[in-house]
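Form 12-C: Joint structure prediction
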Amino acid sequence: MQQSTPAAQEWRPRIIAFFCNWCTYTAADLAGVSRLKYAPNTRIVRVMCSGRIDPQFILDAFVHGADGVLIGGCHPGDCHYTEGNYKTLRRHHLLRRMLMDMGIDERRLRLEWISASEGDKVRDVINGMVTELQTMGPLALNDNMTRFDAELESDLDTYLVTLSTKEVEHA
Amino acid sequence: MPEKPKIALYWCASCGGCEESVVDLAEGILDVVAAVDILFWPVALDFKKSDVEDLADGELTVTLINGAVRTSEQVEMVRLLRKKSAVVIAYGSCAHMGGIPGLANQFHRTHILRYVYQEAPTVVNENQVYPEIRHSWNGYSVTLPEFHATVRSLDQVIDVDYYLPGCPPTPALLAAAVNALLTGTLPPKGSVLAPDVALCDECARKDSKPENLSFEQYKRPHAIAADPEVCLLAQGLLCMGPATRSGCGALCVEGNMPCTGCFGPTSRVQDQGAKMLSSLAANMSAQTDEDIIETLGGIPDPVGTFYRYGLPVSTLRRYRDTES
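Section 2 - Result
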């Protein structure tokens, strides 16, 4: 998979960010009106509460091409719905462990508390995450899936060739 | 007299429990045997692959296939059976979702082979002999099936008409399915032949499930003597009931063991494990990082717990690695 085509060199991390309506989304808005500059790698999805973010959304984002997922919620104690962000925090810890067990670097999933007034924190967090993801490289889960599916169609001889090259270097 | 329906049964990567469950129809199996012609059933009857090859396309009325698909031989056989069958039913958790064998998707193929042929306790393999796909000896050449990198559910390999869930499916579900087949009253293609509501719905302990579970600790079944009347989640046991389809009659819970999720999710859920993880984690009382991590320590193996029967059909499907 390691190709040095121009496309691979131009790779930029893609981040899906789920921001809660009451704090972090407002902070991102503030960053915008304050004309703070930050990396353009993030697609923001506004949700009413970070507690609404189903772990299914996060896994879906990863298999559909996200290199990182960022969750932004209100600081503990400040949740508009009292404890939605605590639920997020607990899910976050368990989900990170699960991602790790599935061979996905847990730093690709990040949870940050950002209040409505912290526009500069939005900038810093996104910039920091982009830098970190750049050192990790692409996640490319969808490429992985395509390769596993292709295995079904390979005939025995092709398989024997790939086996002798791949498995030896891995052993 | 009209011709009897022709039936085949085949197993792939499975433990044999599904085949056993067919025999568990007990006297009922005599009715089935009287009503149908069994044309292929390697576990019980002496038929060969060539017998299947000799059939006309679509000649088999129905084929029940159990087990996950991992080797090239299994791929070849299920494709052959698909061609010869009018209806294919994925029978049991492994064919339905990958099942227990699907947990191997957490590891690289090389690691599995190395462990089994080298590192497992009691294995002595000084010459480092591994199975070979092709081996020539004395002018003869023999082959073994290739061991794929990924374990797959049946519908990731061939088109599947119906799913009978369970590890194994209960005799009642099988009898109902066979009956529906023989009388031509099957639901739309792609249906899972079990109710589409969560297991809690048919659980005898349903009324004792508290609104707020507020876990302070996750307990493992061997560590406590569970109260046989009270909701297992309320006792801190990790019961997959809320994220699992009903239809088994809550057999495990009746035996005072938590549900492990073999019937898979209902149709509204995409990822059984993520859904259960979400609900369980949300229902904890801990609020600080340290307390949360400590409480979560009670779940030693999240993947094995939440995806016990369905890792190959989960969103992530298998371990991410860069080699194939």
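Section 3 - Comments
The first strand of chain A starts at residue 15 and ends at 20. The CA atoms of residues 163 and 170 of chain A lie 10 Å apart.
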